[in-house]
């Protein structure tokens, strides 16, 4: 047996063959734990993308569904001009559907198929839906996507293009999540929502971010900045580094910086306050739409990983987010979804506030592609001019 499932609440242990998603005793979330923590990390180099870490992924056989997810570039942006933190970015927009969500989708849809699922269901009005839909298409697994009826059409076209059935529900995203759970209880469809509370396999795909960062940087960074919506990807980054430490591969783990948009920052509020995560009663609009969750389902786990890493949590304003977005596109040629660029904003702000010191090596995970939210780049229209159809007019406008 490669791994076991351990209940996060009652610590009961279940075998991997159980194929469980939540604890049958107390309904709490499960954690995948590898039986031999010392297995090496990249002993499967013949496999594509994230699958080169096969011995640390919860699949029994190599018949996974893959489209080359992972192996994204870690780019050096250099030292900041006005000071000197050493900034690297992990460009997740280069994944098959445009976001890091392909890492968990590849693992969770493969796992569902390995367990004999009749299909997969996901409730999402963000990037999880297209990712799960794409891997379901590639793996020939039927896929149901649940979204609130008020979701703009642009946010379900991609998932629909992959052939998923989109069911619009006259309710909130939380209602959709509840219905996804019911579908999984009542049918042979498996729940591929990204929260760890419903699917313990997603986080396993996400943690490959940490493995890759270490393989690419060849040393442990001082800080890794991660955007937080539900808190799943941050927890996974924490788990990845901790597994590497347990295996003896590294001696220390980096400090994790959680970043949220100030207009919707329940995790930052808990971190700076009494440590209790409270659902926001109202959420102000933010350009970082895919991370605007009033309650982070994996927030407690995320807070734990932040504390264990001696990390920090910070909120950034709309102006700071947009300034990072245009800095990344205009100075580095990287079109980042605003929700992903908050990690870069957070590093800048944490440095300005003295949390990150001079000379420290920092990695920002840019979680998604700006093509997902191209309308966020309208300010770029400042660069557009119209001229008469003659070369003289054009020449006067070149500079
Ligand atoms: C889903 C998502 C996040 C946040 O991930 P959580 O696990 O919900 O915290 C961040 N950025 C992008 C682009 C996403 O799609």
Task: State the gist of this model.
By secondary structure, this protein is an alpha/beta fold. It has helices at 102-114, 128-139, 157-161, 173-186, 202-206, 208-217, 232-246, 266-272, 299-308, 318-332, 338-352, 391-396; strands at 3-7, 13-15, 30-34, 74-79, 86-91, 119-123, 143-148, 165-169, 189-191, 223-227, 255-261, 312-316, 361-366.
Topology as a string of helices (H) and strands (E): EEEEEHEHEHEHEHHEHEHHEHHEH
Q: For the report, how would you describe the main beta sheet?
A: 6 strands, mixed
Number of helices: 12
Unreliable runs, pLDDT <50, ≥5 residues? Answer: none
> Structural class, please?
alpha/beta
Distance between the termini: 65 Å
C-alpha Rg (nearest Å): 21 Å
What is the strand arrangement across the widest sheet?
A: 4-5-13-10-11-12
Strand content: 15-25%
Count of DSSP strands? 13
List ligands, each type once.
Answer: pyridoxal-5'-phosphate
CATH architecture assignment name of the domain at 74-95 and 202-380: 3-Layer(aba) Sandwich
Task: Round the mean pLDDT to the nearest integer and report it.
Answer: 94
